[in-house]
Specification:
By secondary structure, this protein is of the alpha/beta class. It contains 17 helices and 26 strands. Helices cover 34% and strands 22% of the residues. The strands form 5 sheets. It has an 8-stranded parallel beta barrel, surrounded by 8 helices. It has an 8-stranded mixed β-sheet with strand order 7-10-9-13-12-11-15-16, with no helix packed on it. Strands 24-23-22-25-26 form a 5-stranded mixed β-sheet, with helices on both faces. The protein binds adenosine-5'-diphosphate (ADP), phosphoenolpyruvate (PEP), potassium ion and magnesium ion. Residues 128, 130, 160, 292, 320, 322, 343-346, 377-378, 412 line the site of phosphoenolpyruvate (PEP). Residues 96-424 form the Pyruvate kinase barrel domain.
């Protein structure tokens, strides 16, 4: 029995719903009265396929999917469920290039919610070790891994360290507290239980070192502002000069004559707790560490050295740029890291808010020059923590990050504690897809400057091959780029040029696959690769064809890199253009 129906108006999530239900063998799949804008056919009871671009004929059907049938996991293509679904529905050009990171918190930590986020396009799940117990995080990581394994998702896991920073541990109230103009407050390290009005407790004894009478304390980048009126010992007596709010765990910066006062705390970038969290991450097999409050490249190098001796798999290290110091050492930090997080939350405490946009643009540019993935983070859709729609300004901010060709966007509180996490993810998805297609139409990637990376001849050859491959792919308007990669390097060099078509990166290394989830425009696939490059190419083309992911007439540009062997004693890097017949 073959069923075919074709009709109008629905979204990818409907398709995802259908696929998901098939995989979990949900017999109560209810397709009645649901309309779709893609064709759909079910051959026999167990197999089904989706084709895009078919005629619009309205119909409703019921699907007889056998309970427990394993439809999406057949074959060995190693393409994740979500990319496959998107590709079928939207075609090559419809694949979103910008990657999406969601912070997992109490609002989205159930298996069901994690699956919805994965379906909605979450590429990387971030766990912030500032919050929650290690047991809580372990439970979430295991759920994600189980979901990947059993349902065909490919969501990477990132652990974000707590790091050390001065903040307020108590301000006399359990949640936020209002600060009225002219009210006077005591900032102290004296430990007290319960609440004491107009008293805030700092977490570090030397918190007031270098602060003088007349200095201004700016809370959380402008939530409230105080002037220091008296200093007794380590304690500061302050008067509020700009009313606002004190949030739990608020942070502050000190200003004198309109300039930030730099105070030299000797906090280690990685505290004892952070090292314990890193060991925990290694044991749980996470894919990324995001290192908070990196000031120098050395702390990144230390962690990378530690991981190379202690972790059985490759784990990438991202540096979070969120201090003034890190901006001064930016190039060295970018060079030492596997990627960067523009952590605008804390950055906004350390530098004037109005400088954030230019600093962000600068960091994104440096990262692309150095070929390192970059995540733009914090407050992208902050109002969606409470409301179901974003502000127009937030949508404009997201669009700007996409226009700058950042690799990834990140949700924090929106997904961790917000009531509309899935909706916020959908806003990122839609907004980035729209800006990407506009950028393609405008040919904006021509504006990227092609910074030369390689010094040695082999490196220069690889880089040139990738630059030229992208130029060719764009000019020829090919449907897809295929690349075969062990460590992801060639895939990243292609991604750096922000090509029009998607980059399908075939790798036989699971950690490379998970790392590439963060890279702009790359769809990673886990496959068996042999030493024979030609056979790898023909096998993957055949597999894609058999799944009707590529069709007759499609043009694919293939970039391959063959290491010398005993029989062919020379390295061979090539660009081939294949027309599918
Ligand atoms: N694992 C967690 N458990 C509880 N709350 C969390 C967790 N992760 C994040 N949150 C909440 O989400 C908010 C936003 O997350 P994030 O931006 O990562 O942290 P922060 O605001 O501390 O920098 C946090 O303030 C916190 O209230
Ligand atoms: C991403 C950030 O770090 P965290 O949420 O851990 O403070 C930030 O400060 O913007
Ligand atoms: K953190
Ligand atoms: Mg931060």
């Amino acid at each position: 029995m073959a069923m075919i129906f074709k009709s109008m108006s629905a979204s990818t999530s409907d398709l995802s719903f259908v696929r998901q239900s098939c995989i979990s063998g949900n017999p109560s799949l209810d397709l009645k009265n649901r309309a779709f804008n893609f064709g759909f056919c079910c051959k026999g009871e167990e197999k089904w396929k989706v084709k895009y671009g078919v005629a619009k004929v309205r119909a409703t059907v019921e699907l007889g999917v056998k309970k427990g049938s394993n439809v999406a996991l057949e074959g060995t293509l190693g393409l994740d469920l979500v990319s496959e679904g998107e590709l079928m529905v939207k075609g090559f050009r419809g694949l979103r290039k910008t990657k999406l990171v969601c912070t997992v918190g109490p609002a989205c930590s159930s298996l069901e919610d994690l699956e919805k986020l994965a379906m909605g396009g979450m590429n990387v799940a971030r766990l912030n070790m500032c919050h929650g117990s290690r047991e809580w995080h372990r439970d979430v990581i295991r759920k994600i891994k189980k979901m990947n394994e059993e349902k065909g998702f490919s969501v990477s896991v990132m652990i974000d360290t707590e790091g050390s920073q001065i903040h307020v541990v108590d301000h006399g109230a359990p949640s936020s507290v209002k600060v009225e103009e002219d009210s006077t407050w005591l900032f102290t390290t004296e430990h007290f239980e319960g609440s004491r009005p107009f008293t805030v407790q700092a977490n570090y004894k030397g918190f007031s070192e270098g602060i003088e009478v007349g200095d201004e304390l700016v809370i959380d980048g402008g939530m409230a502002c105080f002037v220091v009126i008296e200093k007794t010992g380590n304690d500061l007596h302050c008067k509020c000069i700009d009313a606002g709010l004190f949030l739990p765990g608020a942070k502050f910066s000190c200003w004198r004559d309109g300039k930030l006062v730099r105070r030299n705390y000797k906090f280690p970038t990685l505290s004892t707790k952070d090292w314990a969290d890193i060991n925990f991450g290694i044991a749980e097999g996470v894919d990324f560490f995001a290192l908070s409050f990196v000031n120098h490249a050395d702390s990144v190098k230390d962690l990378k050295n530690y991981l190379s001796s202690k972790s059985p798999k490759s784990i990438k290290v991202l540096a979070k740029v969120e201090s003034l110091e890190s901006l001064n050492n930016l190039e060295e930090i970018v060079k030492a890291s596997d990627g960067i997080v523009v952590a605008r939350g804390d950055l906004g405490v350390e530098i004037p808010l109005e400088q954030i946009p230019t600093v962000q643009e600068h960091i994104v540019r440096i990262c692309r020059q150095q070929n390192k993935p970059v995540i733009v983070a914090s407050q992208l859709l902050e109002s969606m923590v409470e409301y179901p729609t974003p502000t127009r300004a937030e949508v404009a901010d997201v669009s700007e990050a996409v226009r700058q060709y950042a690799d990834a966007l990140m949700l924090s509180g929106e997904s961790a504690i917000g009531s509309f996490g899935q909706k916020a993810l959908a806003v990122l998805d839609m907004t980035s897809s729209r800006m990407e297609s506009w950028s393609r139409e405008e040919n904006r990637q021509n504006l990227l400057n092609n910074h030369k990376l390689g010094a040695s001849l082999p490196d220069c050859i690889t880089e040139q091959i990738c630059n030229c491959a992208v130029e060719m792919a764009n000019k020829l308007g090919v449907d897809a780029i295929f690349v075969y990669t062990k460590h992801g390097y060639m895939a990243s060099l292609l991604s750096r040029n922000r090509p029009d078509p998607p980059i399908f990166a075939f790798t036989n290394d699971e950690s490379t696959r998970m790392a590439l989830n963060l890279q702009w425009g790359v769809v990673p696939l886990l496959v068996d690769l042999s030493d024979d490059a030609e056979s790898n190419i023909s096998k993957s083309v055949e597999l894609m064809k058999s799944k009707e992911l590529i069709n007759k007439g499609d043009v694919v540009l293939v970039v391959s890199d063959v290491a010398p062997t005993r029989t062919t004693p020379m390295a061979l890097q090539s660009i081939q253009v294949k027309t599918i017949i």
